[in-house]
Amino acid sequence: MIKGSDFLPLPGPGEPPHVTRFAPSPTGYLHLGHAYSALFAFEAARITGGRFLLRIEDIDRQRCRPEFEQGIMEDLRWIGITWDGPVRRQSEHIDTYRAALDELQRIGVIYPCFCSRKQIRIEIEQAGRAPHGPSGEALYPGICRHLDPAESAWRIRNGEPYALRLDVGKALALTGVLTWEDCRAGVVEADPLSLGDVVLARKDVPTSYHLAVTVDDHLQGVTLVTRGEDLFHATHVHRLLQALLGLRTPRYYHHNLIADSSGQRLAKRNRAITLRHLRDCRRTPDDIWRMIGLSAETNPKAL
């Protein structure tokens, strides 16, 4: 299964079969980009006699809906993808993420941040410049990083909204230099400072994407994380969290992204055509494979 420079990675000599996963958020229906990502992970596990897991990342209570979760499973089955073991739903494991957050609190690498997005924007504008992340986004300037603990505690007791941020500089002082292995990029030196002090939780939700996905991959025994190349830089933070929490580090494969005829990558926010719509238009799974650059013979239903 290949798209551009993509290739299916095989385990090295003596390594066990891959355990992979597909982890969509039920905030909409799957599109062709999701189909490619799911099939890539599925095939990477299948060709080695490994396991393919399905995880539902549903910590966003406002946007996640049961009908989207049901639709995800229907679409995966329609294109011939099945998964091993029970589905893991992040909403059912909040206590697990809270425990990880407590450990990070214990070792002193997180701090409460009371800044709104507007306050952060104004601070950056007044400073006249701000460091930027790998995608060009302005990074959090550390406004609350050095607040007096007594003031922070007082503001929390008084019900002020807050987020919990990772003090990346302090964390790196504990871990030292870290690396991770990407199947396409080779050995990569982790650079979490490039993303700034990311949010790990909020007052009402004790986890975030960065924390939950890192903990889940460890607990589910994932050995090969396959996901789109747009998440390559997030791995810098995930590697740091693994070191801080004593979690295993899997191998990574950041595959190409599916784009439309104009070159724009497929995404829910761009209203990409969904698999559900294509199925309603009487397209077949073989049509889907061809649309994402695969042959009909790759369709697992045909094997």
UniProtKB/TrEMBL annotation:
Keyword Nucleotide-binding listed: yes
Q: Name one Pfam family in it.
A: tRNA-synt_1c
EC number(s) of the enzyme? Answer: 6.1.1.-
Kindly list the GO molecular function terms attached to this UniProt entry: ligase activity
InterPro entries linked: aa-tRNA-synth_I_CS, Glu/Gln-tRNA-synth, Glu/Gln-tRNA-synth_Ib_cat-dom, GluQ/Sye, Rossmann-like_a/b/a_fold
Domain (Glutamyl/glutaminyl-tRNA synthetase class Ib catalytic) ranges: 19-274
Q: Which domain of life is it from?
A: Bacteria
PROSITE patterns in UniProt: AA_TRNA_LIGASE_I
Keyword list (alphabetical) reads: Aminoacyl-tRNA synthetase, ATP-binding, Ligase, Metal-binding, Nucleotide-binding, Protein biosynthesis, Zinc
Question: What enzyme category does the UniProt record give?
Answer: ligase
Which family would the database say this protein is a member of? Belongs to the class-I aminoacyl-tRNA synthetase family.
What's the protein called, per UniProt? tRNA glutamyl-Q(34) synthetase GluQRS
Which species does the entry assign this protein to?
Answer: Benzoatithermus flavus
